[in-house]
């Protein structure tokens, strides 16, 4: 966990007071909506279909149990008893009242949570690997660098009015769980030949209306120079990024139009002016941040405790363990992913009761720490293997032990037309139906790893372009129509999916996905060949044929 | 459903209302003939041509403290005078999410 200092606490508290005054002036009519809109957006407050939506940041996906309890409290006191975890390590509350927002913010500020820069044309929440600090083989904990960038970019006056929103993600593992290649800036922690810590820097990734996979702009930037290098990128973007057309305003369009070579020359030139100045980071600064991250006092535990050996006889436990439990860097411990994808329920939602109970379990079994991943699941990062059977039983009672992590029912979906004012079509009911179709665990297990991503409009909050199967809802002649893509992926091999054919109607989507899956099962060379690999080997055609032959 | 954020021209094809979200709590409201806002669609003022729609929208926009983001939305008016939303988006705004969310009020 990261311990905030007095500066952080003062900043967050002052922000609450400032926003309280702004809300008061808005409600009295002193501020018009036009004047207020930018202020509320800078505090994570959107207007959606039914009400205001309040987005709260969970920097680099790390939560302490008192923070999770505070989120539960907000859900219970100010909202309708639940929250929705997003694809960027945020949580959203869908029914909040503007008049009560300052109180909700004040309650969150008490535990160091805020909503600054969770919307608006500024630097958004810096995201990272939800397994940061505990994943085996990691270069080092990427959250130290995430925190450095968070501090530097929070309320940075030069970057508070960018052409468009700006997102950074960081990973320190070979297997990318932070989706860095679909971010405006993606950072991969690496070591150079001297053993020094630095970053491979990618730029210009993003989805939405015009999707691009990020390109490497520099193969190695020393850690001490990372702030100046990011600043150089942002300055070039701030100067040349388009402000005349919202659809062309993201950095990905600038990188695409200039070309990565010209863009990188511009960045290099800017960087040379600033790299040896005040943004060069002293080792002490990094060490100070590092010292504020506390790590558990792990026990020396056996690799295979008796409790785990005995529980292995329980088929239900084993089904859950195989999909939800991952290796930890410390022997005797595991990382446990908590599925927020129960069959028939909205992906990513958690009730206040679940959040409170999970906080209790995290205190008991995970040194008081919870993580949030971009797949809209949670994780307990430090669970002793001997505790896995007891934890599983407790999670099961809470409806949080669905054994579907990374399987076909572990669906990523945006809120869609049920909540979102931008959406053209519903996402959640499609996800619900698909989870019912593939509810049989043996079938889901037979299919193996398969990620479905659903977006209710071209803005792609459900990351449909990078789903193994992507589903995009659009509107055609007043009806919801869904375009299906296959072959996308969001990891280190990030790729955009390809359309399989004409769009299909709302009530045909699940049938089409069943056809695609049946085709895969018939086409795969062996059970271990994943869906994504079969698509890579064969292309779209055989799937297209299977889906459209009878339609 | 086309987002009203993309509503560029005021062109109505049938009976319509002006809808928005109430400023202090964000709930869905409709402009009434009494120049006020109501959460009840049956109390909405109905407009049937572009000029009426423009006038109702202008009056609604002017009430910036009462509600935000007003726009024109289609409705269907039954033979008995009952007003129903004219598309799925407005149906969802009126009756709530379609996902069986138990927390729905």
Overview of the molecule:
The complex is a heterodimer of chains A (551) and B (105). Chain A has 18 helices and 21 strands. By secondary structure, chain A is an alpha+beta fold. In chain A, helix 3 (65-78) runs antiparallel to helix 12. Chain B has one domain (11-95). In chain B, 20% of the residues lie in helices and 26% in strands. Chain B has helices at 50-62, 88-95, and strands at 16-22, 28-31, 37-38, 67-77, 83-85.
What share of the residues of chain B does DSSP label as strand, in percent? 25-35%
Low-confidence stretches of chain A: none
CATH hierarchy, class of the largest domain in chain A: Alpha Beta
The structure class of chain A reads: alpha+beta
pLDDT averaged residue by residue of chain B:
89
**Unreliable sequence segments of chain B:** none
CATH architecture of the largest domain in chain A: 2-Layer Sandwich
Write down the Rg of chain B. Answer: 13 Å
Q: Give the quaternary arrangement of the chains.
A: heterodimer
CATH superfamily of the largest domain in chain A: Sulfite Reductase Hemoprotein, domain 1
Strand order of the largest sheet of chain B: 3-2-1-4-5
CATH topology of the largest domain in chain A: Sulfite Reductase Hemoprotein, domain 1
Distance between the termini of chain B: 24 Å
Number of domains of chain A: 4
Average pLDDT reading of chain A: 96
Biggest interface between chains:
A-B, 38 and 30 residues
Report the C-alpha radius of gyration of chain A, rounded: 23 Å
Helix/strand-derived class of chain B? Answer: alpha+beta
> How many separate domains make up the residues of chain B?
1
Organism (chain B): Bradyrhizobium zhengyangense
Protein name (chain B): DUF2849 domain-containing protein
Pfam family, one (chain B): DUF2849
Domain Nitrite/sulphite reductase 4Fe-4S (chain A): 119-273, 408-547
């Amino acid at each position: 966990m990261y311990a905030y200092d007095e500066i952080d606490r003062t900043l967050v508290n002052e922000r609450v007071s400032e926003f309280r005054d702004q809300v008061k002036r808005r409600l009295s009519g002193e501020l018009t909506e036009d004047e207020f809109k930018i202020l509320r957006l800078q505090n994570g407050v959107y207007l959606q279909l039914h009400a205001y939506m309040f987005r709260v940041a969970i920097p680099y996906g790390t939560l302490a149990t008192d923070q999770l309890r505070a989120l539960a409290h907000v859900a219970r006191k100010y909202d309708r008893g639940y929250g929705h975890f997003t694809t960027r390590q945020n949580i959203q509350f869908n029914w909040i009242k503007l008049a009560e927002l300052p109180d909700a913010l004040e309650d969150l500020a008490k535990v160091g949570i805020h909503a600054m820069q969770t919307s608006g044309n500024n630097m958004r929440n810096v995201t990272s690997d939800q397994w940061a600090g505990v994943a085996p083989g990691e270069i080092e904990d990427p959250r130290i660098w995430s925190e450095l960038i968070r501090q530097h970019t929070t309320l940075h006056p030069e970057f508070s009015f960018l052409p468009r929103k700006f997102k950074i993600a960081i990973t320190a593992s070979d297997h990318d769980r932070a989706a860095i290649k679909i971010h405006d800036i993606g950072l991969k922690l690496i070591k150079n030949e001297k053993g020094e810590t630095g970053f491979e820097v990618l730029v210009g990734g993003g989805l939405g209306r015009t999707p691009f996979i990020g390109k490497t702009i520099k193969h190695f930037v020393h850690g001490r120079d990372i702030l100046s290098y990011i600043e150089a990128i942002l300055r070039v973007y701030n100067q040349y990024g388009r402000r005349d057309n919202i659809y062309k305003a993201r950095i990905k369009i600038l990188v695409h139009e200039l070309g990565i070579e010209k863009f990188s020359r511009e960045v290099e030139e800017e960087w040379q002016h600033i790299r040896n100045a005040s943004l060069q980071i002293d080792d002490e600064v990094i060490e100070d941040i590092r010292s504020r991250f506390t790590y558990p006092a792990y026990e020396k535990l056996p690799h295979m405790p008796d409790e785990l050996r005995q529980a292995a006889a329980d088929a239900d436990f084993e089904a859950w363990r195989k999909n939800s439990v991952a290796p930890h860097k410390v022997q005797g411990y595991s990382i446990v992913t908590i599925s927020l994808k129960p069959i028939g329920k909205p992906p990513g939602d958690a009730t206040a009761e679940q959040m409170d109970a999970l906080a209790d379990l995290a205190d008991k079994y995970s040194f008081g720490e919870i993580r949030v991943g971009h797949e809209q699941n949670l994780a307990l990062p430090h669970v002793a293997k001997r505790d896995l059977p007891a934890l599983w039983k407790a999670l099961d009672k809470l409806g949080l032990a669905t054994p579907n992590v990374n399987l076909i029912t572990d669906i990523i979906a945006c809120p869609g037309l049920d909540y979102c004012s931008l959406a053209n079509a519903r996402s959640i009911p499609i996800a619900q139906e698909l989870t019912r179709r593939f509810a049989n665990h043996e079938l889901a297990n037979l299919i193996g790893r398969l990620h479905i991503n659903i977006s209710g409009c071209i803005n792609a909050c459900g990351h449909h372009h990078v789903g193994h199967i992507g589903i995009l809802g659009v509107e055609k002649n007043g009806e919801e129509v869904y375009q299906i893509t296959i072959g996308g992926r969001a990891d280190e091999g990030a790729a955009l999916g390809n359309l399989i054919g004409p769009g299909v109607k709302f009530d045909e989507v699940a049938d089409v996905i069943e056809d695609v899956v049946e085709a895969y099962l018939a086409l795969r060379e062996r059970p271990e060949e994943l869906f994504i690999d079969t698509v890579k080997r064969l292309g779209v055609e055989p799937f297209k044929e299977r889906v459209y032959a009878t339609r | 459903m086309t987002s009203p954020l993309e509503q560029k021209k005021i062109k109505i094809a049938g009976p319509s209302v002006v809808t928005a979200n109430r400023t202090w709590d964000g709930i869905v409201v409709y402009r009434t003939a009494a120049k006020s806002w109501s959460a009840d669609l049956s109390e909405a003022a109905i407009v049937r041509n572009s000029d009426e729609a423009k006038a109702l929208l202008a009056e609604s926009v002017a009430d910036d403290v009462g509600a935000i983001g007003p726009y024109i939305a289609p409705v269907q008016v039954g033979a008995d005078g009952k007003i129903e939303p004219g598309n799925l988006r407005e149906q969802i705004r009126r009756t709530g999410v379609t996902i069986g969310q138990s927390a729905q009020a």
